[in-house]
């Protein structure tokens, strides 16, 4: 069964967040990085700055020489983390199998997900649209049968693009790739391959496996597999999920416990949908609720319950609300899991 992997890469993430928050920066060359006078380094820059040759990891002083009008902003890493978490909440609407690579980049395995009748292409487009509308920045997406190809695809139509490599087109796509696109090929390895007359994956594929490895060395096995589109690495979440929850911030504060209880059925339904997307693989240990009051203080309440009902959450809401008995701006409900090995599950084939 072909896997369906989506690689999402935010477009000039730090700079995009800064331009979103300050529209006067749009269409001007900007970068996020260290002070040029203190040997600072550029973390990222927008596309206007790239037209001058400014690049990530470049000394800020050199970047300023290339582009005298460059606006260099200090990084706000804590804030960027919050924006990244907002994006990941969108990812989790589609799958819980997410491998973050950095604040602005992640792999998603949507192989068995039912959204859009299982179409990874439509899921990738939906993610892009939701990030644009809810977060206010753009992302590029690559859809392919493995991680290697999905990552290449996400860079293919940047910025704000989508590239899909369906299984029946992988051979055609791979053969025209320059060897520099292969994971692990830097300047030295690329030159070594060029010296052998190897410039594309098609050139690698003209060799028999053992002949290629003999000429290139031990790393040749890895390159040979990639040039044939073979990448069996799974999408690996950093750690197994310990909880699942949903929450909502209301435009008008909820004045009393009755108005909070009114919102509970909808929250409980959303929680059940989120649990279904995770495959129901983890036994539930506890139920919990979260309330954020109008003074911005928060409280949580939980209880041991393996199959929490609406009444379970009603009781927890009552107890949590009594701690302050004031208007509420945010409600959340969730469950915590027992430590448990995932149960086996059936695979379902869907359209790519």
Tell me the layout of helices and strands.
Layout: E1 5-10, H1 13-21, E2 30-33, E3 42-45, H2 47-50, H3 60-66, E4 71-73, H4 77-91, E5 98-102, E6 105-109, H5 120-134, E7 139-144, H6 147-156, E8 162-164, H7 170-175, H8 187-195, H9 201-205, H10 209-216, H11 220-227, E9 243-254, H12 257-277, E10 284-293, E11 298-304, H13 310-321, E12 328-337
Parallel strand pairs: 2-4, 7-8
Antiparallel strand pairs: 1-6, 1-7, 2-3, 5-6, 9-12, 10-11, 10-12
Helix pairs in contact: 12-13
Structure write-up:
- By secondary structure, the protein is of the alpha+beta class.
- The chain is built from 13 helices and twelve strands.
- It has helices at 13-21, 47-50, 60-66, 77-91, 120-134, 147-156, 170-175, 187-195, 201-205, 209-216, 220-227, 257-277, 310-321, and strands at residues 5-10, 30-33, 42-45, 71-73, 98-102, 105-109, 139-144, 162-164, 243-254, 284-293, 298-304, 328-337.
- Helix 12 (257-277) packs across helix 13.
- The N and C termini lie close together (11 Å).
- The relative contact order is 0.11.
CATH superfamily of one domain: DNA polymerase, Y-family, little finger domain
Gap from first CA to last CA: 11 Å
What's the CATH topology name of one domain?
Answer: Dna Ligase, domain 1
CATH architecture of one domain: 2-Layer Sandwich
**Biggest beta-sheet profile:** 5 strands, mixed
Helix amount = 25-40%
Arithmetic mean of pLDDT: 89
User: Would you count the extended β strands for me?
Assistant: 12
Taken from the alpha-carbon principal axes, the silhouette is globular
- Are there runs of 5+ residues with pLDDT below 50, and where? 340-351
User: In angstroms, what is the radius of gyration?
Assistant: 24 Å
Strand content: 15-25%
The arrangement of helices and strands along the chain is EHEEHHEHEEHEHEHHHHHEHEEHE
CATH class of one domain: Alpha Beta
Label the structural class.
alpha+beta
């Amino acid at each position: 069964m072909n896997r369906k992997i989506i690689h999402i890469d935010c477009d000039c993430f730090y700079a995009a967040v800064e331009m979103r928050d300050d529209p006067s920066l749009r269409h001007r060359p900007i970068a996020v990085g260290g002070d040029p006078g203190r040997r600072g380094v550029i973390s990222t820059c927008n596309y206007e700055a790239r037209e001058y040759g400014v690049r990530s990891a470049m000394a800020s002083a050199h970047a300023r020489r290339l582009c005298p009008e460059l606006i260099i902003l200090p990084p706000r890493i804590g804030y960027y983390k919050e924006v990244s978490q907002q994006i990941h909440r969108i990812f989790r609407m589609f799958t819980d199998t997410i491998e973050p690579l950095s604040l602005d980049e992640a792999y998603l395995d949507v192989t068995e997900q039912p959204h859009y009748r299982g179409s990874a292409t439509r899921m990738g487009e939906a993610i892009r649209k939701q990030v644009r509308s809810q977060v206010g920045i753009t992302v590029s997406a690559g859809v392919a049968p493995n991680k290697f190809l999905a990552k290449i695809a996400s860079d293919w139509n940047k910025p704000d693009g989508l590239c899909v490599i369906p299984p029946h087109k992988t051979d055609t796509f791979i053969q025209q790739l320059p060897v520099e696109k292969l994971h692990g090929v830097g300047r030295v390895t690329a030159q070594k391959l060029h010296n052998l007359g190897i410039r594309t994956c098609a050139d690698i594929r003209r060799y028999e496996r053992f002949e290629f490895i003999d000429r290139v060395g031990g790393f040749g096995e890895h390159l040979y597999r990639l040039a044939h589109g073979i990448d069996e690495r799974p999408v690996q979440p950093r750690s197994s999920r310990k909880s699942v929850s949903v929450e909502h911030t209301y435009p008008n504060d909820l004045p009393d416990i009755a108005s909070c209880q009114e919102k509970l059925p909808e929250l409980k339904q959303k929680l059940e949908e989120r649990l279904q997307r995770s495959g129901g693989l983890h036994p539930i240990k506890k139920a919990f609720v979260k309330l954020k009051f109008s003074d911005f203080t928060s409280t949580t309440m939980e209880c041991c319950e393996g199959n929490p009902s609406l009444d379970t959450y009603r009781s927890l809401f009552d107890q949590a609300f009594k701690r302050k008995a004031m208007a509420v701006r945010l409600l959340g409900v969730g469950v915590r899991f027992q430590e448990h090995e995932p149960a086996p599950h059936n695979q379902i084939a869907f359209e790519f």
